[in-house]
Design goal:
Length: 307
C-alpha cells in the first residue's frame, strides 16, 4: 500500500484528521449547541455565548449542552476521514513537487464536493437530533420524535422522501469554499513557518489553524445559517424541486433574514460559531499533526511530505 488511492500514508492522514476533529469537537461541543440554536430559532434574542449556554443548561439541563453528541461525532468522523483522504490522495497525485495556494484551493474544492455528496444525509440527521427536545422561542417550529440515528433516517425517508436527506446540499456545495480557503491558508502559512527545514511548534500549528478557520468562517457564515435551516427541515418552500428550486430557497432565506433582522441578522450566532469553529479547527490541526508525525515515526516512515 505504498502508492495510489490506497496508500498507507493517505490512510494515516485520513484517520489522524478524523481523530483530531472528534477530539476537538468533543472539547468545544457546547459552543456548537449555542451556535445552531441562534441560527435556527430566530425568536431567540441574540446574547453573548456564555449567557445562551447558561440559559440552555438552566431550562433543559446541563446534559442538553451535549445533546446530539454521538450523531455529530459520527458524522464529523466520517466527514473528516473522507475530506482528509481525498485531499491527501490528490496531494500525492500531484506532478509538481511543490504545492501552491491555487493548487491547494482546487484540491480543497474537490475534496469538499466529494465530502458533501457522500456525507450530507448524516449531517441532516444529526441536525435533527441535535435540536430534538430543544425549547424553541419560535412557535412555528415543532418538536420531532426520533429514537436514534437509524430511526431518524427511516422516519425522514418515510415521511419526506429520500431526497430530503440531501436538504441543504446546494449551500453545502457552495460552502466547500470554507474548508478549501481554510486549507489554502493553513498550507500556505505552514509552508512559510517551516521554511529552511524549521520545526513548527504545536502553538504555531494552533495559531495557524485558528487564523485559517477564522478567515474561512467569517467569509461563509450567512450560507452556513441557511444550511442549518434547510437541514432542520421545517422551512416551508414553494414546493419546486431541483437545482433551481434549491437556489430559490437559498436566495429567499438570505433575503428574508435581511428583511426581518437587517444585514447583521445574517451573522446571528457568529460569535458562538467563531469561538467553536476556530478553537475546534486549531485543536484539530494540532492533534492531526501530532498523530501523523508519531505514526510515521513509529512505522519508520519519516519521509518528508510535499509542501
Amino acid at each position: 500500500m505504498s502508492g495510489g488511492l490506497l496508500s498507507y500514508e493517505t490512510l494515516v492522514h485520513a484517520v489522524a484528521g478524523a481523530m483530531g476533529s472528534v477530539t476537538a469537537m468533543t472539547v468545544f461541543f457546547p459552543l456548537d449547541t449555542a451556535r445552531i440554536r441562534l441560527q435556527v430559532d430566530e425568536s431567540r434574542k441574540s446574547k453573548s455565548t456564555p449567557i445562551i449556554l447558561a440559559e440552555i443548561a438552566k431550562e433543559e439541563g446541563i446534559l442538553s449542552l451535549y445533546r446530539g453528541w454521538f450523531p455529530v461525532i459520527s458524522s464529523l468522523c466520517c466527514s473528516n476521514f473522507v475530506y482528509f483522504y481525498t485531499f491527501n490522495t490528490l496531494k500525492r497525485g500531484m506532478i509538481s513537487d511543490k504545492s501552491k495556494p491555487g493548487t491547494d484551493l482546487l484540491m480543497g474544492f474537490i475534496s469538499g464536493a466529494v465530502n458533501v455528496l457522500l456525507t450530507t444525509p448524516m449531517w441532516v440527521v444529526n441536525t435533527r437530533l441535535k435540536l430534538q427536545g430543544a425549547k424553541f422561542r419560535n412557535e412555528e417550529l415543532h418538536q420531532t420524535h426520533y429514537k436514534g440515528i437509524f430511526d431518524a433516517f427511516s422516519q425522514i425517508i418515510a415521511n419526506e422522501g429520500v431526497g430530503s436527506l440531501w436538504n441543504g446540499m446546494l449551500p453545502s456545495l457552495v460552502l466547500v469554499f470554507n474548508p478549501a480557503v481554510q486549507f489554502m491558508f493553513y498550507e500556505a502559512m505552514k509552508r512559510k513557518a517551516g521554511r529552511g527545514g524549521r520545526k513548527i511548534s504545536s502553538l504555531e500549528i494552533f495559531l495557524i489553524g485558528a487564523i485559517a478557520k477564522a478567515i474561512a468562517t467569517s467569509a461563509t457564515y450567512p450560507l452556513q445559517t441557511v444550511q442549518a435551516i434547510l437541514r432542520f427541515g421545517q422551512f416551508k418552500s414553494d414546493g419546486k424541486g431541483g437545482l433551481l428550486g434549491s437556489l430559490r430557497n437559498v436566495v429567499y432565506l438570505l433575503m428574508d433574514r435581511i428583511k426581518r433582522h437587517g444585514l447583521l441578522g445574517l451573522y446571528k450566532g457568529l460569535e458562538a460559531k467563531l469561538l467553536q469553529t476556530v478553537l475546534t479547527a486549531a485543536l484539530m490541526f494540532v492533534v492531526y499533526e501530532k498523530i501523523t508525525a508519531a505514526t510515521f515515526k513509529l512505522m519508520g516512515l519519516q519521509r518528508k511530505l510535499k509542501h
